[in-house]
Write a structure and sequence with these properties.
The complex is a heterodimer of chains A (261) and B (223).
Chain A: E1 39-40, H1 41-66, H2 91-96, H3 107-123, H4 125-128, H5 140-170, H6 188-196, H7 199-203, H8 224-233, H9 247-258
Helix pairs in contact in A: 6-9, 8-9
Chain B: H1 2-13, H2 16-23, E1 26-27, H3 44-62, H4 73-82, H5 87-114, H6 123-145, H7 150-164, H8 170-178, H9 185-217
Classes of the chains: A mainly alpha (261), B mainly alpha (223).
Chain lengths: 261, 223
């Protein structure tokens, strides 16, 4: 220890500056006294841990650069079509509530009883599993319970995600798929009717979608009479009766929109 | 020159014992990935801390642009992501880092559980670790609302509805989280405060205790 070899160290005081701290500091044991190849934490061991961290960092930054963080549309409390989904690590808890015996009138089981038992057991694990044995295969109850819990969590998370994907696929999403280009862009239904009505405010000048969904490719999903029905009665966030022109114009616009395939 | 500055400071402040106490403690062979490749499982705790540091730093930079009110929150996130230099990277680090932190924390917890490292005399550090897990989940839940997009809004709405369905304390928890009757301006301000001040403070305090206990009790021996 370099600081301990008495190189004219100045006086060290305790809290009261009139009292000197005396007695040498206890030197740490020499590493030869420890079993195996023990190392000092800094810099020897930290260097090795940092090398592991660098591998993780490279993988992490690759993910960050490859996948742009998602940002959806501005929150709209009146949007009735949106299918809520929690972040992935809450999915298993969310899915638990969908069991008949853990939801509806029995919601207490799903929100309090099961998570309560699981988290209390986790918190009190050192007092529930008091044997000296540490090897996982020699304490089958603790290991077995944890493995079962993990399997249940994975299955519930997978089920929740699967269900979410199916709900999204079957939900009336409105609009087109937003792909491709405008068909028949010279049509007066577009240049005169569409652009002069309020359509473009929500669906965009070029059908690209602004607050409302894109109408590019809407013809793949909807026929002209279905589009007229939506203009008359609204759908989702779109209020009814937004089209202010004549029936003739409405029909032309709907037929032109149905061509957007 | 540096040596002289250091000596001058050490002479007056006696700083050597402080950092030598951190630097010199012994790390046993069985947790060293340089000796056994399988010892990388002992790195998950350190990696969780590493990701937490990334989260704190990227989060600090995000607050330079983020505006926690319902009119501007979404626009400020859009701006920092699409207009600000490296905004996409910094938000990406914070967004994906949240998931990676949970994964690392999960792996660390499983390592401690399966190696029985929570047993006597380390019971108390296990409890602190579980509390840290809850704080991290809280950070995830509160951070999810901040971009104020549809996904954030409706996930929080459902989350609070679930909390409100808990008997006796449910309505109290819900009104604490919402700060009113609906997910709205109050909720966003409050989630921001929880995400940026309260929960990180709890996290750092618990982490300090976690590390202090590891130093006091040492790393559990090989299996």
């Amino acid at each position: 220890m370099s600081h301990d070899n008495g190189n004219n160290k100045e006086i060290i005081y305790v809290g009261d500056s009139r009292i000197r701290a005396n007695g040498p500091k206890p030197a740490p044991k020499d590493y030869s006294e420890f079993p195996g190849r023990t190392e000092p934490f800094f810099p020897n061991f930290l260097l090795k841990e940092w090398m592991v961290a660098v591998v993780v960092l490279v993988g992490f930054m690759t993910l960050v650069m490859a996948e742009e963080p998602p940002l959806g549309d501005l929150a709209d409390p009146n949007n009735t079509n949106f299918i809520p989904i929690p972040d992935w690590y809450f999915l298993f808890l969310y899915q638990l509530l969908k069991f008949e015996w853990a939801g509806g009138p029995f919601i207490v089981i799903g929100t309090v009883v099961i998570p309560g038992i699981a988290f209390t057991a986790l918190l009190l694990a050192p007092w529930l599993d008091r044997s000296k044995e540490r090897r996982p295969l020699k304490r089958p109850i603790a290991t077995g319970l944890m493995v079962l819990t993990l399997v249940a969590m994975v299955v519930l998370t997978w089920e929740a995600w699967d269900e979410y994907q199916k709900t999204v696929a079957s939900a009336p999403s409105g609009g087109g798929d937003g792909e491709g280009e405008i068909v028949a862009a010279e049509d007066p239904a577009y240049t005169e009717i569409y652009k002069n009505q309020s359509c473009a405010q929500c669906h965009g000048e070029n059908l690209e979608g602004v607050n409302g969904p894109s109408l590019l490719g809407v013809g793949k999903k909807l026929k002209a009479d279905e589009i007229i029905d939506i203009m008359d009665n609204g759908r989702g966030a779109m209020p009814p009766g937004t089209f202010q022109g004549t029936d003739e114009e409405k029909k032309k616009l709907a037929e032109w929109l149905a061509k957007q395939k | 020159m540096l040596r002289k500055i250091y000596d001058w400071l050490d002479h007056r402040l006696d700083i050597t014992p402080m950092w030598r106490g951190l630097a010199d403690h012994e790390v046993p062979e069985h947790v060293n990935p340089a000796h056994y490749f399988s010892a990388f499982i002992y790195c998950f705790g350190g990696l969780t801390f590493f990701i937490v540091v990334i989260q704190i730093l990227s989060g600090m930079f995000l607050t330079m642009y983020y505006v926690p009110d319902i009119v501007n929150a979404h626009a400020s996130v859009e701006y920092l992501q699409n207009e600000v230099a490296f905004g996409k990277i910094v938000r990406g680090m914070h967004h994906w880092g949240a998931s990676v932190a949970i994964v690392m924390l999960f792996l660390h917890t499983l390592r401690v559980f399966f190696t029985g490292a929570y047993k006597h005399p380390r019971e108390f550090n296990w409890v602190i670790g579980i509390l840290l897990f809850f704080v991290m989940l809280g950070l995830g839940f509160t951070g999810y609302l901040l971009p104020w997009d549809n996904k954030a809004y409706f996930a929080t709405k459902v989350g609070v509805e679930i909390a409100a369905s808990v008997p006796v304390v449910g309505p109290t928890i819900a009104s604490f989280l919402l700060g009113g009757d609906i997910v709205g301006a109050q909720t966003l301000a409050r989630f921001f405060a929880l995400h940026v001040f309260f929960l990180p403070a709890a996290l750092l305090g618990l982490l300090g205790a976690h590390f202090f206990l590891i130093r006091r009790q040492g790393i559990s021996g090989p299996l």
